[in-house]
Amino acid sequence: MKIAIIDSGVFEAHPHVGKIAGAIEITPTGFGTDPLDRLGHGTAVAAAILEKAPDAELYSVKVFSGRLAANMAMILRALDWCREQRMDLVNLSLGTANPEHRELFLEALRGMGTLVSAADMLPGSLPGVIGVSPDEDCPRDQFQIRDGIYYASPYPRPIEGLPSKLNLQGVSFAVANVTGLLARQEALCR
Predict the structure, then answer these.
(1) What pLDDT, on a 0 to 100 scale, did the predictor assign at position 166?
(2) Pick the CATH number of 2-189 from 1.10.443.10, 3.30.465.60, 3.30.565.10, 3.40.50.200
(3) pTM score above 0.90
(4) Alpha carbon of 10 to those of 4, 40, 50, 121, 183: distances in Å?
């Protein structure tokens, strides 16, 4: 199972990660040479996915550098890379509310593996995309589907000694939890 994580990169030496199959940095002008996560967000997403699917091959697609923001050209370039690399699952825990981006996403998603993204934004609200919303009452090892939307815990992998409410949290981790659970289900079916 090949899973791309479009995010801030992944620090594979983190004890909750330990391995990734590959990494690339997307920049405003093309491709960069620094795929390392300097923000921590992508690493926490990777840890949540690997907790559920430890045998998955993770590929880090870094689009965030100094902050958790990227332009549309970078996101589209990242999605193109994922399609070219034949990723089975793509974890995109970001999105846009700009309706002008709808057609761009529809074009970028043609011929691509399964995309998992936030349900209330683009591209997560598009047909064929697994849209995810957070549900604090959902256990971290399962998801629920209601009205075509996947609901999952908004908490990443816990950190010993830190209450979950003080850790990172939000739709990004609900998306990561669903990605990991879908990868685990797919591995069981193979």
Answers:
(1) 61
(2) 3.40.50.200
(3) yes
(4) 11, 8, 12, 24, 18
Domain borders along the chain are 2-189
Kindly report, residue by residue over 115-165, the tens digit of the pLDDT.
999 999 999 999 999 999 999 999 999 999 999 999 999 998 777 777 666
Helices (H), 69-149: 72-84, 102-109
Edge-to-edge strands of the sheet including 130-134?
30-32, 22-27, 57-62, 2-7, 89-92, 114-118, 130-134, 149-152, 143-146
How far is residue 190's CA from residue 183's CA, in Å, rounded to a whole number? Answer: 11
- The token pair that represents 176 in the structure block: 């990561």
The residue ranges of DSSP E strands in 41-185, in sequence order, are 57-62, 89-92, 114-118, 130-134, 143-146, 149-152
Assign 171 to helix, strand or coil: helix
Type and span of the H or E element at 3: strand 2-7
**Higher per-residue pLDDT: 188 or 184:** 184
Amino acid (1-letter code) at residue 180:
G
Pairwise pLDDT comparison (185 vs 189), residue with the higher score? 185
Residue of 169 and 163 predicted with greater confidence: 169
